[in-house]
Specification:
The protein is of the alpha/beta class and 537 residues long. The chain folds into four domains: 9-46; 60-139, Immunoglobulin-like, CATH 2.60.40; 149-444, Aldolase class I (TIM Barrel, Alpha-Beta Barrel); 453-534, Immunoglobulin-like. It has helices spanning 2-5, 9-14, 22-44, 154-157, 163-175, 223-232, 258-268, 292-307, 353-362, 401-413, 429-435, 438-444, 491-494, and strands at 60-61, 66-69, 74-78, 81-82, 88-92, 98-100, 106-110, 116-126, 129-139, 149-152, 185-187, 236-241, 272-276, 314-318, 336-338, 373-375, 383-384, 395-396, 418-420, 453-457, 461-467, 473-479, 485-490, 499-504, 509-515, 517-522, 527-534. The strands form seven sheets. An eight-stranded parallel β-sheet has the order 16-15-14-13-12-11-10-19. The chain has a six-stranded antiparallel β-sheet with strand order 20-21-22-27-24-25. A hairpin with a 2-residue loop joins β8 and β9. α5 runs parallel beside α6, α7 (258-268) packs across α8 and α10 packs parallel to α12 (438-444). It starts with a helix and ends with a strand. Mean pLDDT is 92; it is low at 1-45. It binds beta-D-galactopyranose (GAL). Beta-D-galactopyranose binds at residues 154, 189-190, 247-249, 276, 278, 318, 342.
Length: 537
């Protein structure tokens, strides 16, 4: 509506304005532009209040404080940093095998040859100031010491994904500022390979070459060049396969070609593999008759192969929590495992589907640890496609703003991998406010690597508490009801004592001191996300 009442720029250019009228015109223009902007934000952002403070012009380094790498393997890390550009980066304690580009903040090279902890101090400077942040590189067997963060194309592009979509997403991850908060992986989901039997010339053909190497379909002319492009931004590239003969969207899977595929993925330069059960179910006894070995065999095979490769490849299991995957994911070399079915098709109950998935995922808290993460699936907000009908165009989420704050808060408390899967070409300010709050992300990326424990769960409330490396406690009080609700939690439920300083994490503001309990009023389907730290005497 606002577009019709606001003159376009070309119309304005044609109007001749007498000098005496400029002040009134300027006033009108200011009004028109402000209302247009506000309407545009409201219209594109489900009208929610933006709680995340805008990052200041001073440099601020975000992201994890601990980072795992394997001996001698290629290393790539773009220092996530907000603040006015240009920035100048430097680092003290950086192992000699690594170099930092002072302008881009990208660290590259080979991980040290000797296992151990390498404490580094990262530094960023601009005209407004200087900031430092500790960053410990831990060389050893484990990678993904904090939950991986990035974007996956599935819920926007489905079986239409292309090389251009992935390159654009990498560009958008940097241009939108997401990379400055630690989003790093740009991951292709299903549908990059050949689709056996397809008569679409872009998708059909021989799935493998004469040597048995997997071929991408015509929408991906050069996988190696694509990964290199993503790397050139300091970001990492991910892809997808299935241990079955076909993927879930019926593209070629890795069955009986696991070794060749693992080598190919590494040779192309990919850093992340999502390995989706799909048609593997036809190769094992029917459900109810399967052993744990039936479930873990294909993952053991691929997990071992990935470790043999010349680069670090994060291994993400996707088999929907079958066979209690959380209890054996570690033993097959996984870094994360989906704990439930697809969030995008999870039916709504009295609450949107992400709550059901979140409640299920929360039960496995004891299995999460650095390098080992329960994965409750992607963050489906912003402009998002219809998982029941891929042909429908992506549209703005129908989750309320409070539900979106709850979604992100629940995911970070559960130390979940943080993968946005909405449209990267239509990122609106409200969606970015949900995705890019450095203190919210710090909860997820905390070096202790603990998943929140469930403190309370009933029909009307859900309370999660996550111990943090600095001794503080991140706490989420979720109101599951349709009315505003007074909620509280006692120190003895949390193992706390004395006076605690309470910080409102979304607003990044201390809100006072509490003794004995924390009590607040929470919006319908909303959350109070706070961090409690012992008040110093
Ligand atoms: C599902 C998986 C989704 C997506 C899809 C692709 O099995 O859970 O996340 O990868 O397959 O076909």
């Amino acid at each position: 509506m606002y577009q019709r009442s606001t003159p376009s720029l070309s119309t304005l250019r044609k109007i001749r304005i007498p000098a005496t009228q400029w002040r009134a015109v300027a006033k009108f223009l200011r009004f028109a532009l402000t209302t247009t902007f506000l309407h545009a934000v409201a219209a594109s952002a489900s009208g929610g209040p933006i709680l995340t403070p805008k990052p200041g012009p001073q440099p601020k380094i975000n992201g994890p404080t601990v980072y795992g790498a394997r001996r001698g393997k290629p290393f790539l890390y773009r220092i996530p940093c907000t603040g006015q550009r240009p920035l100048q980066f430097s680092a003290t304690g950086l192992p000699a095998s690594l170099t930092l580009n002072n302008e881009t903040g990208i660290i590259e090279g080979l991980a040290p040859q000797v296992d151990g902890s390498y404490p580094v101090i990262l530094k960023a400077t601009n005209r407004k100031g200087t900031v430092t942040r500790k960053f410990i590189i831990v060389v050893g067997d484990r990678i993904a010491l904090t939950p991986p963060m990035g974007w996956n194309d599935w819920y926007t592009h489905y079986d239409r994904v292309t090389d251009a979509v992935m390159r654009d997403a990498a560009n958008a991850m940097v241009a939108s500022g997401m990379a400055d908060f630690g989003y790093q992986y740009v991951n292709i989901d299903d549908a990059w390979m050949v689709k056996p039997g397809s008569d679409d010339p872009m998708l059909g053909g021989a799935p493998r070459d004469a040597d048995g190497a997997i071929r991408p379909n015509r929408r991906f002319p050069d996988m190696k060049a694509l990964a290199a492009y993503i790397h050139s931004k300091g970001l990492k590239a991910g892809l997808y396969s299935s241990p079955g003969p076909l993927t879930c969207a019926e593209f070629a899977g890795s069955y009986q070609h696991e070794k060749a595929d693992a080598q190919k993925f590494a040779d192309w330069g990919f850093d992340f593999l999502k390995y989706d059960w799909c048609s593997y179910g036809s190769l094992v006894p029917p459900k109810g008759h399967r052993t744990t070995e039936d479930y873990n065999k294909p993952y053991t095979l691929m997990g071992n192969l990935l470790k043999e490769q010349s680069r670090d490849i994060v291994f993400n299991l996707c088999q929907y929590g079958q066979g209690d995957v959380w209890s054996w994911g570690d033993s097959v070399g996984a870094n994360s495992w989906r704990t439930t079915g697809d969030l995008g098709i999870e039916p709504r109950t009295s609450l949107p589907g992400f709550y059901t998935v979140g409640f299920a995922n929360a039960r496995h808290a004891d299995f999460a640890a650095p390098g080992l993460w329960n994965d409750p699936d992607y963050i489906l907000i912003g402009n998002i496609g219809n998982a029941h009908d891929f042909v429908q165009p992506a549209k703005l989420t129908d989750l309320t703003p409070d539900e979106q704050y709850s979604y992100m808060s629940m995911w970070v408390l559960m130390a979940s991998p943080l993968f946005f899967s909405g449209d990267m070409s239509k990122l609106d300010p409200f969606t970015l406010n949900i995705l890019c709050n450095s203190e919210v992300i710090d909860i997820d990326q905390d070096a202790l690597g603990r998943q929140a424990q469930v403190i309370a769960k009933n029909d009307s409330e859900f309370i999660l508490a996550k111990p943090m490396a600095d001794g503080s406690l991140a706490l989420g009080l979720f109101n599951l009801g349709r009315e505003e609700k007074k909620m509280s939690v006692e120190w003895n439920q949390l193992g706390l004592a004395g006076t605690q300083t309470v910080r409102d994490v979304w607003r990044q503001k201390n809100i006072g001191h509490s003794e004995g309990q924390y009590a607040t009023t929470v919006n319908p389907h909303g959350v109070a996300l706070v961090r409690l730290s012992e008040t110093s005497k």
